[in-house]
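Q: Is it fine to ask for two folds in a single conversation?
A: Yes, each is treated on its own. Send the first.
Q: Here.
A: Result:
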Amino acid sequence: MNFSNSESQIMVRQAAKDFAEKYIRPYIMEWDESQHFPIEVFRKMGEQGFMGILVPEEYGGSGLGYFEYAAVIDEISQVCGSVGLSTAAHNSLCTGHILSFANENQKKKYLPKLASGQCIGAWGLTEPNTGSDALRMKTIAKKVDGGYVLNGAKNWITHGISSNVAVVLARTGELLDSRGITAFIVERGTEGFKGGKKENKLGMRASETAEMIFEDCFVSEDNVLGEVGEGFIQAMKILDGGRISIAALSLGIARGAYKAALQYSKEREQFGQPISSFQGISFKLADMATEIEASQLLIDQSCYLKNEGKPLTKESAMAKYYASEVAVRASTEAVQIFGGYGYTKDFPVEKFYRDSKLCTLGEGTSEIQKIVISRQILK
């Protein structure tokens, strides 16, 4: 595995950094406090190619790989975790599912609009009573002439209200049958499909999280994604790649918190010297820097395997598990280094602190990642 950054990676990372500084940083607290989902920014991101990073150029995307993708998520998340989260969910879940399993007609219809940012994507797996236990989902797709009728609700869905296109998993077979779930593409405006309650969250407040509700929602069989009954298996493969996204999101939050703490420690003086000169502070910074580098290496390994089309279930779970816990530790220590100032909204670390916790919960909790890892190593 080559540890040097390619020219493409360097250019893409710089472009993402410049974009975040210009279009995101000035508004992060305004969006956070009002819970505003800045859809206009995602349209601009589409113009930059950040909404279809992995989509081939023939479908209107950037045609890049996972190293560039992780770099974009990392750089954006160093500025705002909310925008990083929404960028990740759009790219890896909805767009990624269509890219991986759609037929040619579906790809031509949906990928250009998703990659350009003209359409915002959502991905519906989780339900009120089935978080980690997805096989017990209660959303039903009943076969009728020409398609299926969906009934049920999904929750904790990124862009559950504002999305234009959603990939939705629904049961077409028996409960607990891994081949009894099917994926569907459902467009906003379809009769019987609506957004529900928007969650009032601790962190990631500018990333919309809401219910999606289906009441006698007819979906044409042309919008079945892949084979009937293969939805759960597809979803597990999508989550393997999605874990790279959350790992990169976590890395960005950790880096943002670390950089803020590092700079502050050099500027803040107590007892006649910068607080960075005290071992209690410098050792915190050393731990943060080491864990961030380790997270980067785990992510790089997963990106390499994904680009090569090799199995990465264990490696992506390791990257997601480790990087998400590092994000929480790094942001906690950053608040500690800032002291009382770190507890106020006048300084950036309290937001990193609030945003970081989602990384240990979304797309599989840390406990689920440990189950995945342990099953892989005990095979």
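Q: Second one now.
A: Result:
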Amino acid sequence: MTAVQHKALSVSPLLLMAAALISVGLVAIASASISLSEVRFGNEWHHAIRHMMYLGAGTVFGVIAYLVPISAWRNLSPWLLLLALALLVLVLIPGVGRVVNGSQRWIPLAGFTFQPSEFAKFALVLWLSGYMVRHGEELRTVLRGLLKPIGVLVLFAMLLLAEPDFGATVIIMGTAFGMLFMGGARLIYVFGLVFTALGGLAAMILMAPYRMKRLMAYQDPWSDPFGSGFQLIQSLIAYGRGEWFGVGLGNSVQKLFYLPEAHTDFVFSIWAEETGLVGAVAVILLFAAFVGRIVYLGYQFATEKREFEAYCCFGFALIFAGQAFVNMGVSSGLLPTKGLTLPFISYGGSSLLMSCITVAVLLRLERSRLVQPKKRQARRRSQ
């Protein structure tokens, strides 16, 4: 058996790490949502069952995505971008988009809901990767090469902020700027755009009283312990109760209606409470290894001069790393409160669905590297 055949038959480390994160998510959600599910729905496994249903759908769509050739993803990327923009407009139409806690971010679909911003992240990475390949020289030399992607980013940001979804806006802008930087855009232009974006975000914080209140609560949650600082304080209590090895799976106290959104944005706090510092660090290292594997795959494509594949890997790595960093930073008090899910772990069907599809595309990219040596070997034999 050749080395290439052996690699083709082996299980991808990327798939194993994604499966490990999904397993952690199943356990964490089943534990964090048990009390809420029992009180609201009379079934303590309600959220866990729905999460598994989304996981099943993610697996089916992931298999379909894996079967699509990379060239097809590249050709379809402009149409996927248009579809993402259409969905972002659709969710803002009264009567179509579903309002939850003052935000209109979800589209109801047959008993489930879909969040267009999750698909928008995926579509933007594919489109921007293709754009940087087609207009790479222009992007690296003149400002005009940046105008088209910047125009798309501004349009995305306006639609997301209209929902409002400040967290998704930050992730999309950060991912795009990172990809443009890696694509060779001139530093003076990139930094100018970054500072402009930061200024715009700062202005939006000052103009929105609830965002300003969140920022002040992040700086000193104890100044309003029963108001704006309540959620962060309860999250920090969960971290503190976990100590080294945790209180044991299922034994969290903070999930008993002390910590709001314990199974969604703050599920990592419950995981830290039940598994302690050891369990929390294990998940952080698992995310680091997962993102590192994607970056390494992108580096391999870059050395082979396969730019589209490399940019896709780097873009998806930035999304996973950014969301994990922000979610963990928010729950631990390092960052102001933002409504971002922890990939594979937080309860959220749209996030899990798109994460599975993204992993499937990455696995297809990884497989394409194994096909190339086989083709070269076949050509050598024919000669």
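Q: Anything structural to flag on that second result?
A: Two points. The chain has one domain: 11-368. The two ends are 21 Å apart (CA to CA).
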